[in-house]
Amino acid sequence: MSRDVDERKKRAALRKLRKAAALAEQGLGPELSDWERQFLEEIEARIETYGSAFADPEKGAEGEALSSLQRIKLKEIDKKARGKGKSGFKSKTRPAYTPRVRDIAAEDEEPPVAPSGPPPSRPMAPRLVTAPTHPPPPQDTPATPTPRPRFRVIEGGRQTADD
Fold it and tell me: b/e for 66-85, b at 16 or more Cβ within 10 A?
C-alpha cells in the first residue's frame, strides 16, 4: 500500500540518498559503518516500493517521503561522507580540555616534610537548624495573643436582590 507522496519530493529524497552513498564511496570522509550503509539501502528500497520511507503519520508530514528523524540522519550521513564531521554545540572561546598529569620524576625525589606542631583543627560539620517561623516577642513585655480581626459592614457596597 503506497501513500500519496509528491513525486518531486520522492525524487529529491532518492537523489539525496544516492548522492550520500556515492560520496561515501569516493572516500572523502571516514568510511560509513555497516548500519549507515544498510540504512541508506533500506530507505531507498522503501521509497521506491511504497513512495515513502515511513508509515506512521505522526513521524512526519503527510506528503513527505522521509520522516523528520530519517531526514536528520540522512544529513548526518551526508556530512560524514563529505568529510565535514558532526556539528554540535562547541564553544570556540573555551580552550580545549587538557587532562592533569602527575609528574612521576618529581615524586621520586624526597617526599615533602610534614609541618611540626599541633595538627590543624578540623572544621565543624554542618548541622541543620530550623529557623523560627516568626520573630520572638521582645523580652521585656509578656507575649499577648493577637486579637481576632473585626469585620466591618461598608455601606453602599454590594446590593442584594432583596433590596
Answer: bbeebeebbeebbbbbeeee
SS (H, E, C) 6-57: CHHHHHHHHHHHHHHHHHHHHCCCCCCCHHHHHHHHHHHHHHHHHCCCCCCH
- Please write the tens of the pLDDT for every residue from 63-102: 788 888 888 888 888 888 888 766 666 656 666 677 777 7
Q: Which amino acid is at 4?
A: D
CA separation for the pair 51, 10 (Å, rounded): 7
Q: Pick the residue with more confidence: 75 or 4?
A: 75
Cell 620524576, located at residue = 105
93 burial via Cβ count (<10 Å: 0-12, 13-18, 19+) = exposed
End-to-end Cα spacing for the chain: 74
Tell me which amino acid residue 23 is: L
Alpha-carbon distances of 89 from 70, 73, 100, rounded to whole Å: 21, 17, 24
Cβ contact 46:3 at 8 Å: no
